Amino acid sequence: MGIYTSFKDHPHSLRKKLLPYALYALLFIAFIHLFFFPTPTALPSTTTTTTTVDHTLIPKSPPPPPPPSEVFVETEDNSNGCDYTDGKWVHDNTGPLYNSTACGTIKEGQNCFSHGRPDMGYLFWRWKPNKCHLPRFDPNTFLHLTRDKHVAFVGDSIARNQLESLLCLLATVSPPNLIFSEQDNKFRKWHFASHNVSLSVYWSPFLVKGIEKSEETPYNRLYLDSINDVWAKDLGEIDMVVLSIGHWYLHPAVFHYGDSILGCHYCNVKNHTEVGFYDVFGMAFNTTLKMLVDRRIDVIVTTFSPAHFEGDWDSLDSCSKTKPFEENERVLDGMDYEMRNKEVEEVEAAKKIAKNSKDFRLEALDVSKLALMRPDGHPGPYMYPFPFGNGKRDRVPNDCVHWCLPGPIDTWNEIMLDIMKRWNF
Known about the structure:
By secondary structure, the protein is of the alpha/beta class. The chain has 9 helices and 13 strands.
C-alpha cells in the first residue's frame, strides 16, 4: 500500500528510475541497426577527370529549365558508332566546363562575357543525338589519347576558333605553354608538358596554295592542284590534322589548275569565265585529302559552319537571338547544304581510296546542322567591349560567323573526342 501510495503521490519518481533503462535500450537498438544495416556510402568515381564547373561567370539565377522532357539527361550507350547529325539542343543546367576569365587563350572577339554580353542562357544547352549518347568532354582522356603526339588545326578563323575552344577545355587540367607564334598569331603552337602533347594552328583558308587579295589585286588567286606549303612542310612532325575552311571561298577569286585558268568567281576580270565555287571547293579538298592519304596522317574534317546574319553586318538585329532554333524551325539548305555536302563527298571518296590502309583514319566532323541551330552562340555586337556602354543602341559591327567561348563550338570538340575514342587513337 505504501508503495502504491508513493507512486501515486510522486508520479515523476518512476520516470526518473525508468529513464536510464529506456536510454540504454535505445542505444542498444541503434547499435544493432547500424551493425546489420549500415548507411550506404557513395561509390568511388570511375572517371579520372579532375575538372569542376566554375560558375563564377554564370548568373546566380540561370534561366528556368524547360519542361522535363526537354532537359538534358546523361544516358549510357554501347553502340560503336553515332549519327551526331540526328539530334537536338536540349537545356542543361550544368553549364560549361570553363569560364572566359580562367582561360587565357580566347581571342578577344570571342570573349563575349568579358565584353558585356548580358544574357547567359546560351551557355546552358547540350547537343543530344537522338539514337546515341554524346559524353561530356573529358580533358584527361584527350591528353591520354594524344600523348607524345602533335595535333594541327589547319584552315581559316573557324579552325582557330575550334582550337581555342579545345585549349580552354584542356587548360582545366593541364596548362598550355605557347612555344611558337608568328605573323600576327596566324601560326602558333602550344605544348602540354603533362602529356607531351602539342597543338598548333596554321592559317590556310584555302588549304591549297593561295594568294590572298590585296588593294592592288582585289581577288584571291587559288592553285587547286598544289597544297599550301605553309602547313604541308611540317607534316613530318604532325600526327593528326583537323581541317576547317569554307567562308573564304565566298570571296572573289581566280581559280588555277596546273597551267590553266578554270575561271573566276565574282572577280570582274576580262576573259575569265564566271564559275561557282562549289566545285572548286571540292577540288581543293580532293587535292588535300589525297596528299594526306599518301602520307598516312590521320584527318578530321570539320564541316562548314553556317553564319547567322539576319541583315547587314551593322544591323541592330543582325544575330540577336538568345536561344537555339526549335527542331524543324530551320533546315540546312542552299549554300550551307552545298558546302557541307562537298566536304562529306570528298571525305567518303578518300575513305574508299584508303580502305585497305590500317594505319590511316579519316572522318567528317559533321557539325553543319548543329551549328545552324545555334543563332544565339555568336558574339554579335559583343565582338567589341561594351558596344552599348553609353546606353544607346547604335549601329555597330556584328560577328555572326565565329562563336563565343565558352559556347556551342565546345560541342565540336566533344564530338571530335568521341570519334578519336572509337578510333582507339
